[in-house]
Amino acid sequence: MSNLAGSEAGGKAEKFRRQAIEVSAAQASILPYARLLDCERVLLAEAQGRTLAENITAPHPYPHFRRSGMDGFAIISTDTKGCSSEQPVELEVVDEIPCGSLPNVKLVSGTAARIMTGAKVPDEADAVIMFEMTKEIHKKDANHQKKKYIEIRREIEVGKNLTPVGLELALGDLILEKGRHIGTGEISVLATFGIHQVPVVRRPRVAVFSTGSELLSVEEPLQDGKIRNSNTYMLANQIREAGGEPYILHAIEDNLELARSKVAAAFAQHDIVVTTGGASVGDFDIMADLVTGNDVQMLFNKVQMRPGSVTTAAVKDGKLLFALSGNPGACFVGFELFVRPAIQKMLGSSQLFLPEFSASLGKAYSKVNSFTRFVRGRLDYSDGRVMVYPAQLDESSVMITIKDSDVLIVIPPTTTGVHAGEMVKVLKLPRGTT
Ligand SMILES: Nc1nc2c(c(=O)[nH]1)N[C@H]1C(S)=C(S)[C@@H](COP(=O)(O)OP(=O)(O)OC[C@H]3O[C@@H](n4cnc5c(N)ncnc54)[C@H](O)[C@@H]3O)O[C@H]1N2
Ligand code: MOO
Ligand SMILES: [Mg+2]
């Protein structure tokens, strides 16, 4: 059997004639095929990390009753007008309102209700005075009945320690827009409004497999000339971080027909297929041929970037196929720049791309290149400003520094490199978010 079993007649020459397109053009070419998925309902406790499928409006004002902000006494503020240490005022305590209970007694001038933080304030009261600012007095009235009073020695203004209805939200206010990622604050809002079945977008099912005759499964002992398949697991994690549901398929050897049938089978059950390896121009790099088959429309097979210049994308049966580089660094970057936005778009997310900001370069970066570089970097916040340090090893083939990277530093094509202290654009990596 020929050593070149992976390539097809005429396919190899094609492989060398690649047109490198800009990153933004490559990203734009993908998005039309990333269509919004349908809505499903999940329990609130399982909504973390999902994307909202519907706008959520406030079904009631929040808070929906006037509540006390302190443990103290609900009073009618005019009763304290003109009072001072020399001229204290005494109010009779006529009610006791724990949290969760309603007032029992109608307050009139000269009376007060003992009230706890978070309890409903009687309608007649317009202020709460905290315990510490009062003195409790027990004495008998004219009928020799034991009575409780409080002594107040300063004026209390209207509204003191009282949270009005709707302070945070009015009835019908838009609270959470569809497309929003559900995190801690969103969960709190949903719980507050009793939304226990949360409308979320179905997660895209993303099949992932590696190609490469050198690959061992992670359980296998090492063999000379072979390596363990780390990319599949790295990608599965990236898929999860991006909001997709990864389906790990067995790696295959470098064989075009095998890869074709594997991709076809994967599309029968999944929304996206991601492969890694065989994306370049080597004798056994089969993906270039795979994406030029009859039933596949290639979107691009070279991008003006490093690492990941060989990143390839195609459409089959209306679904996206990403053939990422086998080199771990290029595979990682290829995912973040191209697969992530596709997943995010299918989720209806408002943030398709990695968030961007600027930071000062902590150390000169001297590599020059005609393509934009996406260099792994670590943020440093000491001295009160954000500095970013490029990883010591940032070659496409290097795996080890991925774990230490917070951002990708964007180094535009340059002939001089970038000096320390210059401001650079950085793309924030997810680092374990779900
Ligand atoms: N003559 C040329 N050679 C290369 C070019 C080129 O333009 N002309 N491009 C280089 C660039 S850039 C990259 S990036 C790599 C891309 O390689 P492939 O996508 O074809 O990937 P492989 O050849 O299959 O493997 C490359 C490298 O990665 C290791 N690998 C593969 N799969 C995995 C995996 N699942 N887990 C961990 N590591 C994996 C593999 O063993 C190789 O070491 O091509 C350059 N060459
Ligand atoms: O695709 Mo390669 O990673 O540019 O080095
Ligand atoms: Mg190769």
Poorly predicted runs are 1-10
Outline type: elongated
The overall pLDDT average reads 94
Tally of domains: 4
- Side by side, the strands of the main sheet go 7-4-6-5-9-8
CATH architecture annotation of the largest domain: 3-Layer(aba) Sandwich
How would you sum up the major sheet?
A: 6 strands, mixed
At the third CATH level, what is the topology name of the largest domain? Molybdenum Cofactor Biosythetic Enzyme, Chain A
- The gyration radius over C-alpha positions equals 32 Å
Percent of residues in helices comes to 10-25%
**Distinct small molecules bound, one entry per kind:** ligand LQZAQKY5, molybdate ion, magnesium ion
The tally of strands reads 26
Fourth CATH level, the homologous superfamily of the largest domain: MoaB/Mog-like domain
Structural class estimated from helices and strands? alpha/beta
Q: Please identify the top-level CATH class of the largest domain.
A: Alpha Beta
Strand content: 25-35%
Termini gap: 47 Å
